[in-house]
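Dear all,

This email documents one entry for the complex benchmark we are building for the journal club exercise. For each entry we list the sequence lines for every component of the assembly. Then comes the predicted three-dimensional structure of the complex as a token string, followed by one or two observations. Please use this as the template for your own entries, and keep the labels exactly as they appear.
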Amino acid sequence: MTTALFECRNLTKFFPIKHLFREVGRVHAVEEVNLLIPEGGTVGLVGESGCGKTTLARTILFLIEPTSGQVFFRGEDMGTYSKRTLRRFRRETAIVFQDPYSSLDPRMLIADVVGEPLAIHKMAFGEDRDDLVLSLLERVGLKTEHLYRYPHEFSGGQRQRLAIARALAADPNFILLDEATSALDVSVQAKILNMLNDLKAELKLTYLFISHDLSVVRHLSDTIGVMYLGRMVEYGTREQVFDHAEHPYTRGLLAAAPSVNPDDRDRPRDVALEGEVPSAANPPSGCRFHPRCPNRKPECENVRPELVDIGNGHLVACTPS
Amino acid sequence: MEAKENLLVVDKLTTQFFTYGGVVEALDEVSFEIERGEIFGLVGESGCGKSVTATSILGLVAKPGKIISGKILLEGDDLVTKSQSQMNHIRGSRIAMVFQDPTSSLNPLFRIGYQVAEPYIYHQHRSRRQALKDATKILVKTGLPDANEKSRNYPHELSGGMRQRAMIAMSLTCEPDLLIADEPTTNLDVTIERQILDLVKDLQREFGTSVLWITHDMAIVAQLCDRVGVMYAGNIVEKTDVRTLFRDPKHPYTVRLLRAIPSVVSNGEPLEEIPGSVPRLIRPPSGCRFHPRCDRAMEICSTVKPLEQEIGRGHVVACHLYGGEGEAA
């Protein structure tokens, strides 16, 4: 059986809203999320903007300290980590961000951009480092002569390759892909997605993939979590979530995603999501989704549904009808 | 077979940018026509000339750029020859535009209601009070919740989706003949995007407006447009009605582009890639601009620019695979 690389239990993160030194409210960014990231798997997180996908991911990596709850890395509670252990842990994880234009320092040579993790973790020096950087560049499909160039000389797709090369530098086990293909064109995106899949198989990586593009998430992930206003509303395998979605929010999200088949345009949609995501500073009571839910019941306003296993590990947080 | 009249005819439009690095051949003899009341999609990857097409039509090509040749006929009237002040009257009243980023295209210092009312005051010389009243009416039509109250808000007080609704309201104030939408849903969530697409469809039906919808997203094309032009490196390589495009694409670029999209029923099989990358438009490839990346390229492709061929009813392809003698480059 696969083991859990990361496991979070009741992970919660509130951001205080301050007005003159006084806390006047809290943004409920992530609330009581339980998530298991199996070693060698790819977990996809989907949801609209502001639903807490990125905050959850950063809390898992301990870049943000959780308000409450725990994160376990290989079974160890990360809250107990010393600075030194945390640094060792950092070596095993990496992030690829959405916008390759702002995630690469424009004043650094590619050799330094990609080699920086090696320097920080004191893994290689001098020529060794350059050799390693070269092999990384090759691995992501870039050439030797790119070594002494600056980021502005590269196209968007190439920059994302550089960001991936940098992420791979310290030989991590886990990579967080935060909207890593969202800024790319379709044909470039196809190449990057294929490359990510190849790298994963070759280097036995684990991915946490965040995206608002459902077809991309489906393409890359084997397990998917759907978030709404800081809470996990549905969780299961790709087939469970995409083909047998149970939560009304997931269904609405899937129905809203435009299909590439023009014959679908006149097909009546069974679920259309009205309105917008409410503010996370003042979330609705009970089920967070009830004001937009097409099949809400009176009790939804008061009862907060828990994630329930409806079979084979397919978890849904919705009051049963 | 001229059932409907053409509202806009773009004929061999060539726009170039004269930069220090050389001449950027952004548009190379682009031709298409938009019928009255139809939604025409212009689809392609970044840098293929979609937005330059829009700015050329509006007469807003920025400084180092210039329309070199070609015609842009709005009901037979050539826009290329118009003066700035004539264009000022056409923009906003007969052709309106919705931009990609509503945050940067709304003025942060004015209330939403006033910004929507401005075309009424400027183009239709209504009184300020009347214009503001009418602006609220049109905001209601675009489905802005509490339009009365929201029209007194400033742009930063609205969400992205609401701002885009305000932008659409603004563009529809003078009931334009043509609405140009340049990737208006790119920054929005899918659920909001869907609401905006439905809104545009409804309003287009109600007002009978023609729409030029610019996007990089094939799925939006499939769901919204009547006819489509596929752009690659400053050329329209294929244009046809939307169903034919998805069922029976002919140009090798269209074929491969459609295959590169991960589908919602995907199970993680590798995606098909298009080798190489989009060429720079300073000294673009000779002949067919796609030939260096084309898997079906022939000898003729590198020397002769393919002409547009009508290979089926209204299905036009610019590719040597489908015959045509072409012209020497």
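Observations: Chain B touches chain A at residues 45-46, 145, 159, 161-162, 189-195, 197, 216-220, 222-224, 242-243, 245-246, 256-258, 260-268, 270-274, 277-278 (CB under 8 Å). Residues 6-94+176-262+273-328 of chain B form a domain with the Rossmann fold fold (CATH 3.40.50.300).
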